[in-house]
């Protein structure tokens, strides 16, 4: 009797196997049906102990064999399906069209800064760095802008809430000129250095003004540095930067840390000085401030008075980038707008 049932279980199992395909869930259902405690096979196995010795001899091994068979068939099948799945995962369709790798690139500002640094390095300038969080001495006093002096109003300042360990008020530097003092404290003339970096002004923004912007400060100091040296270096730099013949013009101006001081213009890149909308028909574009270093600044840095001469300038990097790459609004640079970023 049991023998027949075992025979039937075997056939049933084989038939059921045909229907499960590669479905692991269905295999589990089969396992429960044929091997669980409530399965028919288990009932037979449990009943063996009540059989007569002859029947035990015959049914015992047969039932065990059936169980083993079913078990190994199931394990083999599961393994096979699993392997096939892993293979599918690793499979590469070599005929599929390639996906273009998206790689980042430098922001236009960084790109422009590197262009500027490259030109100055080729002219034997050193590239230096200065702090963006500064005390009043380096940003103002040392540059001949004492407390309560009206000239401080020229730079609307972001003040920090916290003071430093020495109890000094801190601010976000309003220009890169603070680096003049830091550099001179650590270096003796002659030298020529450019310091690119960020500056901050507490003022309303518009197409030409940002509260955070970049400048590059130049400082050239020696025994007999003159305005003529300054003009020729500036001329060379701007012509290299714009890869064009650029004329420059100085207009008298005022900065506490230079004497004499100038506003610096370059001939309009768009109309080459003829007059157009970019230069408001003047033929000239304003670049920034410059001048011969005030002897008081040398004194602040610990140099002997009237021993050296030098010139300095502070020009906006965004301005240069805007002119070279025809950007009409300074606020684009930090907007994070990919439609802008990806153009360059
Ligand atoms: N620091 C000045 C500014 O940002 C520019 C300047 C630098 C002028 C060096 C003269 C000399 O307005």
CATH superfamily of the largest domain: Bira Bifunctional Protein, Domain 2
| Molecular shape | elongated
Mean pLDDT: 91
| Whole-number count of domains | 2
Strand content: 15-25%
> CATH topology of the largest domain, what is it called?
BirA Bifunctional Protein, domain 2
Query: Secondary-structure element order, as H and E?
Result: HHHHHEEHEHEEHEEEHEHH
| Main sheet record | 7 strands, mixed
Lateral arrangement of strands in the main beta sheet? 1-4-5-9-8-7-6
Q: State the helical fraction.
A: 40-55%
CATH architecture of the largest domain: 2-Layer Sandwich
Give every kind of bound small molecule, once each.
phenylalanine
Count of distinct strands = 9
CATH class placement of the largest domain: Alpha Beta
Please state the CA-atom Rg, rounded to the nearest Å. Answer: 41 Å
Number of helices: 11
Label the structural class.
Answer: alpha+beta
Spatial separation of the terminal alpha carbons: 86 Å
List low-pLDDT spans: none
């Amino acid at each position: 009797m049991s023998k027949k049932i075992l025979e039937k279980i075997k056939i049933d199992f084989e038939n059921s196997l045909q229907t499960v395909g590669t479905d692991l869930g269905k295999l589990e259902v089969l396992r429960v049906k044929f091997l669980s405690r409530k399965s028919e096979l288990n009932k037979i196995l449990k009943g063996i102990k009540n059989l007569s010795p002859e029947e035990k001899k015959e049914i015992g091994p047969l039932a065990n064999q059936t169980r083993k068979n079913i078990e190994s068939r199931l394990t083999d099948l599961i393994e096979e399906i699993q392997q096939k799945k892993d293979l599918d995962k690793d499979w590469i369709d070599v005929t599929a069209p390639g996906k273009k790798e998206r790689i980042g690139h430098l922001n236009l500002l960084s790109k422009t800064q590197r262009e500027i640094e490259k030109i100055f390095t080729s002219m034997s300038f050193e590239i230096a760095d200065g702090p963006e969080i500064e005390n009043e001495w380096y940003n103002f006093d040392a540059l001949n802008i004492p407390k309560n002096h009206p000239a401080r109003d020229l730079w609307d300042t972001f003040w920090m809430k916290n003071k430093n360990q020495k109890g000094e008020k801190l601010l976000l530097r309003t220009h890169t000129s603070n680096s003049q003092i830091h550099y001179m404290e650590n270096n003796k003339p002659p030298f020529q250095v450019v310091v690119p970096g960020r500056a901050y002004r507490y003022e309303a923004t518009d197409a030409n003004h940002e509260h955070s912007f970049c400048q590059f400060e130049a400082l050239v100091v020696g025994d007999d540095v003159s305005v003529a040296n300054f003009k020729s270096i500036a001329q060379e730099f701007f012509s290299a930067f714009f890869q064009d013949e650029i004329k420059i013009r100085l207009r008298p101006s005022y900065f506490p840390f230079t004497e004499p001081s100038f506003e610096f213009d370059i001939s309009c890149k768009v109309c080459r000085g003829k007059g157009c909308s970019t230069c408001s028909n003047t033929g000239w574009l304003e670049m920034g401030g410059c001048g011969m270093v005030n002897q008081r600044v040398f004194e602040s840095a610990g140099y002997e008075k009237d021993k050296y001469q030098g010139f300095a300038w502070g020009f906006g990097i965004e301005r240069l980038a805007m002119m070279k790459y025809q950007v009409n609004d300074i606020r684009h640079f930090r907007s994070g707008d990919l439609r802008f970023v990806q153009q360059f």
